[in-house]
Write a structure and sequence with these properties.
Layout: E1 4-9, H1 13-25, E2 29-35, E3 46-49, E4 52-55, H2 66-75, E5 78-80, E6 83-89, E7 92-100, E8 108-113, E9 115-119, E10 122-125, H3 132-138, H4 140-155, H5 164-172, H6 174-189, H7 199-204, H8 210-226, E11 239-244, H9 248-261, E12 265-268, E13 270-278, E14 281-289, E15 295-299, E16 302-305, H10 309-315, E17 316-317, H11 322-329, E18 331-343, E19 365-368, E20 377-380, H12 381-384, E21 396-404, H13 409-412, H14 415-428, E22 437-454, H15 459-467, E23 472-474, H16 477-480, H17 486-502, H18 508-512
Parallel strand pairs: 1-2, 1-16, 2-12, 5-7, 9-19, 13-17, 16-23
Antiparallel strand pairs: 3-4, 6-7, 8-11, 9-10, 13-14, 14-15, 18-21, 18-22, 19-20, 20-21
């Protein structure tokens, strides 16, 4: 039987999910994956540096979707003593079927989750809770301003909401916005919050009822005072999630193996540069082999694209209409630099885990909101999986995350200089002593975050023209120019495959992923 070629641009979670689902359906479609790099997994890949593995963004394997959770566990089973384990997450529970342990390293671990904010050289709960720890860290005067500001926002909200700043102020008050949101968000995006679309807030900021938080705090304070106690109420934010033993890239490396074993193709170092259009269909995709300089043309029955929309539209020939080209050219991205820093130990503090010679903190990642450093987020890879660290527990393997734009001062800084700069920032905020640094590396990631500014407000104009191309499906984070998590990206790929299999080119369901409440981890 002649197999119909489906060209899939990108070997990240969305692209590989689409490839495997096409093969599992066994309905005569052959996935041909074009990957510009030599790696598997996109921004969900794992980087191996001298035996220490880096997760370049922190990827929890948890989803509200049963389909996604089952899909992951089919690829890499959860390891345990057999029987059921329970994942607890945001006051919800999910039963996980575990398998007895063997020497096979292809499995997922059940890991505790803890994320905190580091601000004013103190640790705050994430998301921020109005508890005694927060009151003590901020002080009564600032807390009073926050409460008054929140009341004002609820009584007199900004209408209409034209920016992310409006979105946050309406939900948290201006004082809390200025304290916890403004500086960090602008550190991430590099532009003022009043220039970012409010849609980013709707998709990425989890619901939080300040009123209920205040009521809860008041009840706890009253209970303690009435009982003659003056101690902090300890509310654990530690939850659980699944995580591949060797990092997120392990999941996608195994998927890539399955795709190839089942007859799919993956072409590395093949960058899609041109899509030939005949009316409302893409007939072929041309890819540049970045190792040989040769351009190869692939015939296409359907195309599933995860490449950045700006580059996709620029490569379509004949070109789309002038308005679509203008909007696509104006789409913006935020780039990313991860610095791996290997240390003998962290600086000892009251937050260090007891009994650890390396003064390990319990967090998976820490949001650094200190205004005197560029550092945005800090990962502690030991706590994601001890198997990411070559000499665990004798060393601590850190991932420092910086948000930047290609061509700016951070991006252009030589790697040796950047590594020294990153170490100095850790010393400055009191987390390490420089004498404890053993090794490290610097990794740059282009277009890690599709931006909600530039021409984004006109994206629907562009989407309308692209959706007219019946056999072209946009999926994933960069493919849809939407800040999707990997489970959202997988769901968009699944829906694209279903559309191909049923010959139904209505793409509304794909665009609905990560918009409706059913996709959010917590309702607003």
């Amino acid at each position: 039987m002649t197999m119909k070629p489906v060209l899939i641009i990108g070997a990240g979670p969305a692209g590989l999910t689409a490839a495997l689902e096409l093969l599992r359906a066994n309905q005569g479609f052959k996935p041909i994956v074009l990957e510009a790099s030599g790696d598997i997994g996109g921004i969900s890949k794992t980087i191996n540096y001298n035996g220490n593995r880096m997760d370049i963004g922190g990827h929890r394997f948890f989803s509200k979707s049963d389909w996604v959770m089952n899909w992951w566990q089919d690829i890499l089973p959860a390891r345990g003593d057999g029987g059921d384990a329970v994942i607890s997450y945001q006051n919800k529970q999910r039963s996980i079927d575990t398998q007895d342990g063997t020497d096979d390293d292809r499995h997922m671990l059940l890991r505790p989750r803890l994320s905190r904010i580091y601000f004013l050289r103190s640790f705050f709960d994430y998301p921020v809770k109005m508890n005694l720890n927060t009151v003590r860290n901020l002080g009564p005067v600032r807390i009073a301003r926050i409460m008054a500001s929140y009341s004002k926002a609820r009584l007199n909200p900004i209408t209409p909401e034209k920016s992310l700043e409006d979105f946050i102020v309406n939900r948290f008050g201006r004082e809390l916005y200025l304290t916890f949101f403004k500086d960090y968000t602008e550190k991430v995006w590099g532009v003022p919050c009043n220039e970012i679309s409010p849609e980013w807030g709707a998709q990425r900021i989890k619901g939080l009822s300040i009123t209920e938080a205040l009521k809860h705090a008041a009840r706890q304070i009253f209970k303690n005072v009435a009982g003659g106690e003056q101690k902090e109420v300890k509310t654990s934010l530690i939850e659980q999630f699944l995580y591949p033993r060797l990092g997120p890239g392990q999941m996608w490396e195994v998927v890539a193996e399955k795709v190839q074993q089942m007859g799919g193709e993956i072409h590395f170092h093949h960058k899609a540069v041109a899509l030939q259009r005949d009316g409302d269909r893409i007939t072929s995709v041309s890819a540049l082999n970045t190792q040989t300089g040769e351009t190869v043309q692939f015939q296409a029955d359907h195309v599933i694209s995860t490449m950045p929309v700006r580059e996709l539209v620029a490569g379509i020939s004949p070109a789309l209409g002038g308005e679509a080209q203008r909007v696509a050219a104006g789409l913006q991205y935020r780039d990313f630099i991860t610095v791996g820093v290997l240390v003998r130990k962290l600086r000892q503090s009251k937050h260090s885990l007891p009994g650890t010679a390396n003064n390990l903190l319990p967090d998976n990642w820490i949001y650094i909101q200190e205004r005197d450093v560029k550092l945005g987020r800090l990962q502690i890879f030991n706590n994601w999986s001890p198997f990411l660290v070559k000499d665990e527990p004798n060393t601590v393997w850190l991932g420092l995350e910086y948000f930047c734009s290609e061509g700016d001062e951070l991006w252009e800084m030589p790697k040796e200089k950047f590594f020294a700069f990153a170490q100095d920032e850790l010393v400055k905020i009191g987390l390490i002593d420089k004498s404890e640094v053993l090794d490290g590396t610097v990794v740059k990631v282009e277009k890690a975050y599709p931006a909600y500014f530039g021409s984004y407000d006109e994206f629907d104009t562009l989407r309308e023209q692209i959706d007219r191309i019946g056999n072209l499906f946009l999926v994933g984070r960069n493919g849809m120019h939407r800040y999707n998590n990997q489970d959202h990206s997988m769901l968009t790929a699944r829906l694209a495959v279903e559309s191909i299999l049923t010959a139904n080119h209505d793409k509304a369901a794909i665009w609905a992923v990560n918009v409706d409440d059913e996709y959010h981890e917590e309702k607003k």
